[in-house]
Amino acid sequence: MGFRCGIVGLPNVGKSTLFNALTNAAQADTGNYPFCTVEPNVGRVPVPDRELETVAKIAASASIVPTMLEVLDIARLVRGASQGEGLGNKFLAQIREVEAILHVVRCFEDDQISHVEGPVDPIRDIDLIETELMLADLESLERQFDGVVKRARGNDKEAKALQPIIERALEMLRDGKPVRALSLNEDERPLLKMLHLLTAKPVLYVCNVDEDSAKAGNAMSEAVAARAQEEGAEAVVVSAAIESEIAGLGDAEEKRAFLNDLGLETAGLERVIHAGHHLLGLIRFLTAGPKEARAWTIKKGDNARDAAGGIHSDMARGFICAETISFEDFVACDGENGAKSAGKMRQEGADYTMQEADVVLFRFNV
């Protein structure tokens, strides 16, 4: 399990440049004009994982298999997209397919790169796209509502549960707020998902700054971060220009040397990917042996049997135990044998709640 996200943004904010850097390939044109991305380019991106690399080195694994991020570079949006302006209909259809939205926001000035809305103003840009998504959701819910009410009157159990959720969502949208701001219980969340609403999706704002602001951000990215905090979203600072240069370098050592020269601890894309995982409530556990070290993505709160089933259904069916070592203990004890000798390997049962970066060997019998 990885996660699928869609990169969105107004024209000329650096969206396709970021996508190219993320996928380490020039799969999208990057011209200074609207609509240079018409069909959604799709890329599968390995999630940078220093802990996995460390575990692989200690375990002398022959190969490393990181977890993957699937990225859609979605057709750009303009004012009026909810009414079909520009490539609005394509945009809205494509964005329904993703689990999370990476909203690239321009936080840099450059006289050579025009902005479709005039002066650079990231908060205005966020409001514009959010408004178009809310209008699309409002139209969708109003279209569905009468049918749900009729079914509820006929004692349809699902419709009776959906009706109050739709009513609350409509009220939220008419107040100019996205549906993700709704307070929902565990039973209501799957029902809301059935409605396929755009503003119910979690959002990560990617502040595209100039190279000089890549380390600390700037006033514009700070305004976006404040906005994200208000609405329970996330924000990261990235320089798409720098990420493009990093993507063109050779091995990992060369890339790290380049980052060190710029005074950056990690690449912006690494922060984007990890923030996306956090946004969706995902964690990963690790497996390691002589053949390979691999990262596996699961939902936070999943138990050991769930995690085993993510590798193979037989592991869940015949689950015996999960021999578990924390990442810190695995490193401190120089691997599995040292951890076992030091009493740091635990035999956990099927109901054990998996923790971030657990190193696990599942025992099963079928």
Structure description:
- The chain has 366 residues and is of the alpha/beta class.
- The protein has 14 helices and 12 strands.
- The strands form 3 sheets. A 6-stranded mixed beta sheet has the order 2-4-1-5-6-7, sandwiched between helices. A 3-stranded mixed beta sheet has the order 3-9-8, sandwiched between helices.
- Strand 6, helix 7 and strand 7 form a beta-alpha-beta unit.
- Helix 1 (15-23) packs parallel to helix 8 (240-247) and helix 4 runs antiparallel to helix 5 (157-174).
- It is flat and about 60 Å long.
- The chain starts with a strand and ends with a strand.
Structural class: alpha/beta
Task: Give the H and E element order.
Answer: EHEHEEHEHHHEHEHHHEEHHEHHEE
Would you count the extended β strands for me?
A: 12
What's the alpha carbon Rg, rounded to whole Å? 23 Å
Total helical segments: 14
What topology, given as strand order, has the largest sheet? 2-4-1-5-6-7
**Helix content class:** 40-55%
Q: What share of the residues does DSSP label as strand, in percent?
A: 15-25%
Q: Taking all residues together, what is the mean pLDDT?
A: 85
Main β-sheet: number of strands, strand sense, barrel status?
6 strands, mixed
Low-confidence stretches: 25-38
Quick one: overall form?
Answer: flat
Distance between the termini: 24 Å
